[in-house]
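Let's study a protein:

___
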Amino acid sequence: MARWLLLWHEGGSARFWELDAARGVAILLMVAFHLVYDLVMFGFLPPEPFDGKWRPASSVIVVQFVTYSGIALALVHQRGRRRHSAAEMRSRHLSRGLKLIGWGLVITVATWLYFRQPVVVFGILQLIGTATIVASLFLDWGKRALVPGLLLVVAGVYLTTITPANPALAWLGVGEPPPYQVDFFPFLPWIGVMILGTVAGRWLYPGGEPRFRLPDWSGRPLLRPLIWLGAHSLPVYLGHQPILLAFIVTAYVLGAGG
């Protein structure tokens, strides 16, 4: 069941330590960003700590997550095509994308109940789930996928300058994000980043094997935690905010009581 829910993945030689380690770094940055955000929300830090320079970090972190997701998607696809037909792989990618969207909806409902308003309408999991489905259509394009990837990035940047007549278009990337959003990453331009990630994945791992042979550093003490985080990125993502909030709310209550 855990594997079906994407909470457990095949280990051993099926994974590459460098990709998990890179994703682990992104996880650490995400946890640090959310910790600062939560501390600001509960008044432990001023509204703009570090002169507000921490906020753009969210886009950098999402670029990493979406790119690594694209690389992993290309890697899984190339390995899967050794044993499965193109139609079977499309079905697998569709299933994974829908499950990620489902987990995103779980976060939407949970945060809605907690904050009493919809603060996550198209978060990172909805984005990656949707992008997985769409980007999978370009997996056999090879380098030609660079063109739609770049065009979608450019289109997304342009759409942010448009004031939409209908706020329901915001999830596509048209205009400003809806109010009170704590996790909002629209379809455009991020789907383009995902497609570019698949192109990078096909180049870095042609045929599902690494183009560059790296020394095996997976057993190094400093890298092991990062590799573990990267290999368990979804459960860590789902669980880190409740844990952070539990500690912060406890400190807030104790401070208010004191």
About this structure: The longest helix spans residues 86-115. The two ends are 45 Å apart (CA to CA).
